[in-house]
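Hey, can you fold this one?
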Amino acid sequence: MQLGPHTLRNNVFVAPMAGVTDRPFRQLCKRLGAGYAVSEMAASNPALWASVKTSRRLDHHGEIEPRAVQIAGGDPSMMAEATRFNISRGAQVIDINMGCPAKKVCNVQAGSALMSDPSLAMRIVEAVVEAAIQEDHQVPVTLKMRTGPDTSRFNAPQIARAAEQIGIKMLTIHGRSRACAYIGAVDYQAIANIKSEVRIPVVANGDITSGAKAAWVLRTTGADAVMIGRAAQGRPWIFQQIVHYLEHGVESAAPLLAQLQPLLLEHLHEHHTFHGIHSGVRTARKHVAWYLRGMQASHHLPSPEDFLQSFYQLESPEAQHASLNQWFEQMQSIDRKPGAANDASYLETQQA
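Sure. Predicted structure:
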């Protein structure tokens, strides 16, 4: 897939998720097969750029290219300034958030709230696209949005057409309205309708949990790519599984625990380094819980709840690392899924 001057490795992408897709997690997903990833949503308000949280969200040091930054806000001039600021810090793609349904975002007329005000939304798109013009090239600007404010107002096709005319290079559609948040069935036909209205690439997002589902969504919607969000929490190897299915038409088992152990322990180390000891220890807990529950489902392992209760009490990176390493050692003897060795070889190929 082509996005401006960037050739993406494949059409299976990582969705931007606040508090999840920090740099270490994006890097892991890319190493495990994802062709593209977008950063956590970053505020457009300059007063917040110096905060620890925002500065971490804008840190892309050493990240596999292209480096894509998602920005959110309801003021065109601030969004333009945020665009220039992020490009100056190395952003190679700017993504506009018009899809987040969180109240704290929508209450400031940002995220999916913009779909209720198409005029403001297009002024923001125009300001960001113009701000992304550099001396020698145009930094691609993409847009992530929903189907509309609610199920009775399906205005995404009109917004998509207008955004394309202004200069948006790719659209990601979460197949629910703002009012639906993350509840209820995804309207894949709505994504298909939007795809039929534009010529730029369209990415389908929402409840894609397997290779078979991804292939079905691509056929049903006509989309050019799929974006995986919550299904990747605790299953970062889902990207290699989906890529494998799209290439070969068969489902693949989860990689061997012996292959995942060094990757996830390295992720834990990078998470601690990136976030610092205090914040890193606290935020690592949710990632470890997701991983262990995901491995339990994929490898038919015993419930990790007792282990997690003790893990949550640990207060140092060293203790967390040692505890998780011990868990892997105990669980590897249980991992006997047929076909896992093939996936381990695929995992090694991805790392190479």
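The longest strand covers residues 36-43. Let me know if you want another pass with a different chain boundary.
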